[in-house]
Amino acid sequence: MAASAPKSLSPEQESEIDEVFARARAALAIIETYDQARVDRLIRAVAWAVANRSTFRRLVSMGIEESGLGDFDSRMNKRMKIRGVLRDALRSPSVGIIEEDAARGLVKYGKPVGVIGCVVPTTNPDLTPAGNAIYAIKARDVVVFSPHPRSQHTTFETVRLMREALEAEGAPADILQCITLPSLAASQEIMRRSDLVIATGGQGLVRAAYSSGTPAYGVGAGNATEFVDETADLAETARNCMLSKTSDFGSGCSADGNVLVPAARYADMLAALQAEGGYLASAAERDALRGAMWDDEGHRLPDTVAISPQALARAAGFGIPDDRRFIVVEGDGIGEDRQFCKEKLTTLMAVHAYEGGFEDGVEVAKRLYEIGGKGHSCGIASTDDAHIDYFAQHMPVSRIMVRQPNSKANAGSFTNGMPMTSSMGCGTWGGNITSENVSLRHYLNTTWVSRAIAEDRPSDEELFGDFYDAALEASDPAVAAAS
Question: SUPFAM superfamilies, per this entry (predicted)?
């Protein structure tokens, strides 16, 4: 939906932001003097303050009640992501020398980027502040959080707990701050004043971050799709799709929205998804769901985002059994006018059949990503390494999960090597500056120190190969002409 023009800051908002940034700069002058042991202890303290089971349970309940979005059980599991971010941060140096390459005479030193403006999405009012705080403190940065108004009190409480943990360790609480009068205009002002912006949210927010005049890491739109070939284990694939789709009621940009299946395996895939708790909608129910999820101009309606499949069905005017975990609709084509091939952000997935062989299916997948989600992520269910390689060579995405649930894997998992994060760059495909998972290295400035090494200069014959012509390099033009 088109965003209205932002209103200007109120005097109260402007005063608050002035004070917050003054305190942030003062805290930065202190934290940038800390050594590695000090920041490692601090990130443990702030992580435990919010990621222990008792506290995180309270924050999750608070966030769901405040925003009306999300599923309690799967959102509770997100505290494991905080542990993963902490693991990655603890394993990497960030103060002083962070990398050495003796052969090339290079030594790299980590430095803070400064004040980070972090815009918090309504779907992760607790996880996003915690993850950003860990990486930022590890890099000796300070953070000003701009909460989403729909879940602001949950973010306030998350930041308050982390500030208490900092104070208990004798560090300035103002290393982490959160504005209390959030708005679009306030977020834009925070982005303008910061040294770095990390923006996790919709495309309007990301565009605002990039136009703020401040270096920014944003994320592109998701439309996670599972690609199935003839070698796939359909029962395993269906389970992975279910795990991805049902996590936090499909609120994440990595939740499987589409499944592409060979035509010969289409019926079996539908059966496997139903065995994992999927409700197969009829054609009439599919039409009703379209009307409940999108308006006449194709804009996604917010009331059906991140809700249970039962609530989604009710919104469309029908009922489904209580044991169904997600809704499956049969795809009705891929194109700008076909809503079910686009991002859903709720407990519904579309299954599309492709005709022909594996390479024909990849062409279908590429068309789908031209409609939405280009640059973000997809999965492949295959045991054929040649297929996986071909898929990786041709798909315009930044991350591909092999036989894993996308939403539980592509932002980092304890069973894969992806960097843990809550922000995933989508490269130039998605209008982003990076195609990486935003992690510790993105919170650091790096100073390169170079020492002289033995000359490393290949001959012209080595460099230019067959194109090298010695006559053209002769110092005497007459020699070159004679030859």
Answer: ALDH-like
DSSP H helices in 32-116: 36-51, 53-67, 72-76, 79-90
Domain made up of 225-416: CATH architecture: 3-Layer(aba) Sandwich (3.40)
Q: Within the chain, how many helices (H) and strands (E) appear?
A: 18, 15
Spatial contact of 372 and 350, defined as CB atoms under 8 Å apart: no
CATH 3.40.605.10 segments of the chain: 11-219+438-446
For residue 170, what are the contacts with CB-CB under 8 A and spacing of at least 6?
A: none
Question: In whole angstroms, what is the distance from residue 205 CA to residue 208 CA?
Answer: 5
Integer CA distances (angstroms), 11 to 23, 86, 181, in order: 19, 38, 11
What stretch(es) of the chain map to CATH 3.40.309.10? 225-416
Alpha-carbon distance of 261 to 240, in angstroms, equals 15
Residue from 119, 121, 118, 128 nearest 85 by CA: 128
Q: How far is CA 393 from CA 187, 231, 378, 381, in A?
A: 38, 19, 13, 16
Coil vs helix vs strand at 111:
strand
Report the alpha-carbon angle 403-407-409, nearest 5. 55
Give the C-alpha separation, 170 to 31, whole Å.
11
- Kindly report the CA angle at 71 between 380 and 329, in degrees rounded to 5? 50
φ and ψ at residue 260, rounded to 5 degrees? -105, 125
* CA dihedral sign, ordered 272, 273, 276, 279: negative
- Write the single-letter amino acid at 468: Y
CA distance 423 to 439: 8
What's the rounded Cα separation, in Å, for the pair 122 and 393? Answer: 35
Q: Are 132 and 159 in contact (CB under 8 A)?
A: no
Q: Within a 10 A sphere around the Cβ of 127, how many other Cβ atoms? A: 27
β-bridge partners, 142: 115
pLDDT given for residue 57 in this prediction: 97
What contacts 342, CB < 8 A, 6 or more positions away?
223, 257, 300, 371, 372
Exposure class string for 131-154: b at 16+ Cβ within 10 A, else e: bbbbbbbbbbbbbbbbbbebbbbb
| pLDDT tens string 398-442 | 999 999 999 999 999 999 999 999 889 999 998 888 999 999 999
Query: What is the separation of C-alpha 311 from the centre of its chain, rounded to a whole number of angstroms?
Result: 27
361 contacts 341 by C-beta, under 8 angstroms: no
Amino acid letter for position 47: A
Question: Looking at the domain covering 11-219+438-446, what would its CATH class be?
Answer: alpha beta
Q: Which residues are catalytic?
A: 253
Q: What is the pTM of this model?
A: 0.93
The rounded mean pLDDT for the chain is 94
